[in-house]
Amino acid sequence: MSTRKSGMFIAIAVITLELIGGMQSYLNQLILPILAKDLNSQNLYGVILGVSSVATMAGLPIGAAVINRMRLSKLLVSATLTLVLGR
Q1: What is the pLDDT of residues 38-54, one digit of tens each?
Q2: How many CB atoms lie within 10 A of CB 76?
Q3: What is the reported pTM?
Q4: Dihedral pair phi/psi, residue 40, rounded to 5°
């Protein structure tokens, strides 16, 4: 794969991941309040939102270790497929 095609491939993968992450954040803000109301757990809404931030912060060191072991293009493709397939 040429450098230009490789760069374009990585750019598309990053944009796709950002789009999926943005959709996830939007849906969390839209669905979680409704879900909390249905389950009578409005008092736990802040905890539910906070847990996702804690998971993100815990994942940062894991991501750094994975980047050191895998090529970036393979990592982005596998992350994109994982997010899209939901596994």
Answers
A1: 888 888 878 877 776 78
A2: 19
A3: 0.42
A4: 55, 45
> Which is nearest to 81 in space by CA: 24, 20, 25?
20
Q: What tokens were used for 87?
A: 């596994």
Q: What tokens does 5 get?
A: 């095609």
Please, which contacts does 25-33 make with residues 24 or more away whose CB atoms are closer than 8 Å? 28/52
Distance CA 52, CA 34 (A): 17
| Enclosing H/E stretch for 84 | helix 72-85
Rounded Cα gap, residues 77 and 12, in angstroms: 10
